[in-house]
Amino acid sequence: MPTKGKGLVARRNISKGERILSEKPLLISPNLSSMSVMESAIAAKLKTLSRTDQRQFLSLNNNFPGKYPFSGIMRTNAFPCGSGAVIGGVYPTICLINHSCLPNAHNNWNNELQWETIHSVDFIKAGEEITITYDHGGPSNSRQAQLKGAFGFDCSCHQCLLPPAELHDSDLRREQIQSLDDLIGEPTRIMATPDCSLKACFLMLQLLEAEFKGNAVTLIGRVYYDAFQICIIHGDQARASIFAQRATKYRVICEGEDSPETINIKSLMKTPTQHASYGASTKWRTAKGLVPKGLDPDDFENWLWREQNSM
Predict the structure, then answer these.
(1) Any idea where the SET domain is (predicted)?
(2) For residue 308, is pLDDT > 80?
(3) 191 shares a domain with 141
């Protein structure tokens, strides 16, 4: 790309949910605190690669030039091999994908297949750049600081270049999204006031739609899974099965049918009681078959989110 260096551009129209790319890592390395030890470990692994793979690794960007070039390339480009993983992998093509705070694709490590996948989370037109997100969320100043420190660039994506008033509104939404995410994840609140936790999920979905215009597929899927967990903890199999169904739909879009996480949530959709937290409470106990039928969409959503209980 003219101002970003290398990047990936769609050669044809790409449908939402399509697997764009999957790659085995060129090299996997733990994230070690000692740069000298990490450098030696990567150097040893590089010697085992073919000349072609070595050249591909060395051609990747390095935002940390200096005494430890191999470690710098790894720190700049590595994707974690799974959520919370302490090891990361680098890829010849996936590592070329640039960042956007409003991405049109999502990266995911498929633990069963041992490769990284890229799925479109929006319709991508031929000639359009494919982007993923490098940031950890939050308002623009927080994102800019993280991207500058970790990757050495100032983000100039469409979202960061919004007019001041629109950027202000975007920042407020992203701050609210972070606050709600923290609230939803509080175990004490989930047990003591599950209605509040479920309400937070509902509000989060509205904010995600307003902020990401339908592109927050990964986050939406996670919120539906959070709602599933809140319900199943309190024995509500009926609502839990619906939330698991919705979480599965979004997980398929951003990870594919063969993702272990997709397969797990799909099994919970069929048998919610398989979840380890089932039975922790009987506050909302219902059978899976007690999903109401014949309701119009609004009334069904009111039932699903327990809105009728607050009227």
Answers:
(1) 1-135
(2) no
(3) no
